[in-house]
């Protein structure tokens, strides 16, 4: 993501992983896509200019070790 784009299919091939293993993370990008923060061109995922501040959030959807924590921060009421 350093170049703000990634050929997801090529990365899957390079790591001998079936692309369908990434279906979950790819689905989680739908909200970011609706907000214009990422774009797809085939299997190439690109972070838009508007999405640059959120590049860590984009990369996080692919992090298999990241556990979402609902109690990490205080909630605003």
What features would you highlight for this structure?
single chain, three-stranded antiparallel sheet, globular, about 80 residues, alpha+beta, about 15% strand
Strands, helices and their partners?
Elements: E1 5-7, H1 8-14, H2 23-28, H3 30-34, E2 38-41, E3 44-47, H4 55-60
Antiparallel strand pairs: 1-3, 2-3
Helix-strand makeup class: alpha+beta
Number of strands: 3
Give the fraction of residues assigned to helices.
25-40%
User: What oligomerization state is this entry in?
Assistant: single chain
Q: How many DSSP H or I helices?
A: 4
- Main beta-sheet annotation: 3 strands, antiparallel
Beta-strand percentage? Answer: 5-15%
Q: Strand order, biggest sheet?
A: 1-3-2
Cα gyration radius (Å): 14 Å
- The structural domain count equals 1
| Uncertain parts | none
Shape: globular
| Whole-number mean pLDDT | 85
The N- and C-terminal alpha carbons lie at a distance of 34 Å
> Helix and strand succession?
EHHHEEH
Question: Would you write up a description of this structure?
Answer:
The mean pLDDT is about 85. The termini are far apart. The protein has helices at about 10-15, 25-30, 30-35, 55-60; strands at about 5, 40, 45. It has one domain (about 5-60). Helix content is about 30%, strand content about 15%. Strand 2 (about 40) and strand 3 form a beta hairpin. It is α+β, with helices and mostly antiparallel strands and about 80 residues long. The radius of gyration is 14 Å and the shape is globular.
